[in-house]
Design goal:
There is one protein chain. By secondary structure, the protein is α+β, with helices and mostly antiparallel strands. Helices cover 23% and strands 27% of the residues. The chain has one domain. Helix 3 packs across helix 6. Keywords: Signal.
């Protein structure tokens, strides 16, 4: 199993130091139909070191599943359970679960979707709770390049505890940093939490919207 380097790094931080809680500021409205505030707040203060997806072909070859759908909910994230109570405490607040209602599987096995949904564990800033992020979700359209982390553990002494929102039979996913893009009805472009358009390699062809990204990945998947 390949585990995303940035996801491991976030786990290491969670296991090494206690999370701090900060006020979320104005995290209460989706009136403008934009997902930009959600992505800004979710990634506030986070500087992720990650290996970029170099092209649509690279995304398809590296991912376990690629989907297009709607972000229907942001809710509590995974926690860690360890014999060391400090480890268990430190992981609280480091993750949120992005629940995506899948409209189209662009690459991968459709049986990897449970009840029409996928559950994506996201490393998020401590500056906002999952509930505050959910309040900023305009039911954004999303394309997600995902890795199956169902069997992943941070280390041999620590287990992953799922939140109640993730069914026991569902797979647990993580998204590539530059592989989860969101766009609200009020947005003219897509946004990511820990990536920028300028960071996409030229081989991507410069997609600016979720629909353009979907087409690019769909073509790559069909060619492989």
């Amino acid at each position: 199993m390949r585990i995303l380097r940035s996801f491991i790094a976030a786990a290491a931080v969670a296991l090494a130091a206690a999370c701090s809680s900060a006020a979320a500021g104005d995290a209460s409205s989706t009136a403008d139909g934009s997902v930009q505030r959600l992505t800004q707040l979710a990634g506030a203060g986070m500087d992720m070191d990650y290996t970029a997806l170099t092209s649509p072909d690279d995304a398809v070859s590296r991912a376990d599943l690629v989907v297009k759908g709607t972000l229907v909910k942001v809710t509590d994230g995974i926690r860690f359970s360890s014999a060391d109570p400090e480890v268990t405490k430190r992981a609280i607040g480091s993750y949120a679960t992005f629940v995506i209602a899948v409209e189209e599987v662009l690459d991968g096995d459709t049986t990897m979707v449970t009840g029409g949904r996928v559950y994506v564990s996201m490393s998020t800033s401590s500056k906002a709770t999952p509930q505050e992020l959910d309040a900023l979700n305009p039911q954004a359209k999303v394309v997600a390049v995902l890795e199956d982390i169902t069997a992943w553990r941070p280390n041999g002494r620590t287990t992953v505890v799922r939140p109640a929102a993730i069914p026991v039979e569902a797979r647990l996913y993580a998204a590539y940093n530059d592989g989860l893009w969101l766009q609200g009805a009020g947005d003219s472009q897509m946004y990511a939490i820990s990536a920028e358009h300028s960071e996409l390699a030229p081989a991507w062809g410069g997609p600016r919207t979720v629909d353009q990204l979907r087409t690019t990945i769909h073509q790559a998947a069909g060619a492989n």
